[in-house]
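Sat 14:20. Reprocessing the chain from the morning session after the first attempt stalled halfway. Input below, unchanged.
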Amino acid sequence: MDYKSENLLLNSDKKVLIMGIILLMRCENNVVDISNKLEDLCKTSNLYDIFWYVKNNVKNNTITVPSALIEKFKNNVDNLKIVEYIVKCYNEQIKLSTLDYIKLLDITILNYEIRKTTRNIEKLRQMDKNNEAVISNLNFNVEKLMELNRNLKNIEKGVHHE
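Finished this time. Tokens:
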């Protein structure tokens, strides 16, 4: 299987989740401490069952060996493809520092929230053109918050403009 060309796995969010699962399997540094963040993101993808299985193995100190992971998901074709990809990455000793991983996870969550908000705005637009006033008001509020944020940053730097 040419796992790098699998359409199923090209999504960057999914790659971040897979890296998180691989790090969990290796139990590296403080990955267990941030697994709640990983869990929330996995809930919106089809990686949740795999994540849950790996996390429980980590918790019970019965760390999942790759062959056991394949055995567990062998009857689910979609999950098996992902599991085979995870095992291949794990076996190839793909390296990613915990710090890089935390940054990637934060960026992925932020991007997910931005996409979700954008979709909600589009739904509002389609539901009723009268909602343009509501959207305009929301945009105005966002601009005000961004301005406030800039002002706070300037105050922190000791640069205050009247």
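Residues 1-10 have pLDDT under 50 and may be disordered.
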